[in-house]
């Protein structure tokens, strides 16, 4: 239908595979173009999806005046230049996480967005998970009261992404913290209401990856000896409002889990909560009773698809970006702070 927004995806393999259903299901958009530097992969997905407009150069896709939305699904290092180029070409852009490798790049992306007058969104799909949406509603209602402490971790056991050099700094710009930690940190900050960080003490480690026989359960492949990114990171963050956060992230850890253990614990003056169990913990001080409640009314739907549909709706109806880059900039500054603190071996403070 001509009234639908025309969508072009850049980087057709990998994460793009879980974006396609959202564009296909959206009542506001239709997938019309694909771009990838790998001709074989491009042809394969073009045929599979019935997409006729195929480009081996992203700039050629950007030059197509019919395309309204560009979905960037490439490796981290090229998120910023591709997003900026698409915005300058007059496209609305949704870009996979992390929005960029360093805060300076996100600031440049925000400037390009402002100059273009278009929408820019980071694809943080966990915000669209029904359990997260339900818990955020309770927090907004004051169920927990002021949140003063949080613990968050995403821990994998022998589960490191090895395909396409994805674990190497030249491709991604960072290791576990920038890869999976950005999901955890964004969701935690979103649930906390994005308090302003004032100091960070962080550490990073690459120990298990360099042991003889170190492997990834994905494909049962051995970790390359030249791995130059962190496999583990941890941080203690203090916020301006007096709250604090303990963060732990790992691709490789001797931790009891089948593949991945992702949890967020929130502690407020009126109650605590756990995601993804979506439990709320209260105390009745008059009766000395502990009250544990499980949130039952949870939306369905696959989060990756829902984030794409939400972006198309925002563009079509003139709504704000569902995940504004200003929030992604706050997350990036914390991640950058962890790396800087780890390198310096001391706490760092924000000006």
Can you walk me through this structure?
45% of the residues are buried. This protein is α/β, with parallel strands linked by helices and 351 residues long. The chain is globular, with a radius of gyration of 21 Å. 32% of the residues lie in helices and 27% in strands. The model has no long low-confidence stretch (mean pLDDT 95). β5, α5 and β6 form a beta-alpha-beta unit.
Question: Which properties best describe this structure?
Answer:
351 residues; Rossmann fold; Dihydrodipicolinate Reductase, domain 2; nine-stranded mixed β-sheet; six-stranded parallel β-sheet; 10 helices; 17 strands; globular
- CATH architect. name of the largest domain: 2-Layer Sandwich
Number of domains: 2
Radius of gyration: 21 Å
Q: What is the CATH fold-level name of the largest domain? A: Dihydrodipicolinate Reductase, domain 2
Rounded to the nearest angstrom, the distance between the terminal CA atoms is 51 Å
Q: Order of SSEs, N→C?
A: EHEHEHEHEHEHEHHEEEEEEEEEHHE
Count of helix runs = 10
Fraction of residues in H or I helices:
25-40%
Report low-confidence residues grouped into runs of 5 or more. Answer: none
The CATH homologous superfamily of the largest domain? Dihydrodipicolinate Reductase, domain 2
What value does the average pLDDT take?
95
Query: Beta-strand level of the residues, as a percent range?
Result: 25-35%
Beta strand count: 17
For the biggest β-sheet, the strand order reads 16-15-14-13-7-12-11-8-17
Tertiary shape: globular
Q: Give a quick account of the main beta sheet: strands, pairing sense, barrel closure.
A: 9 strands, mixed
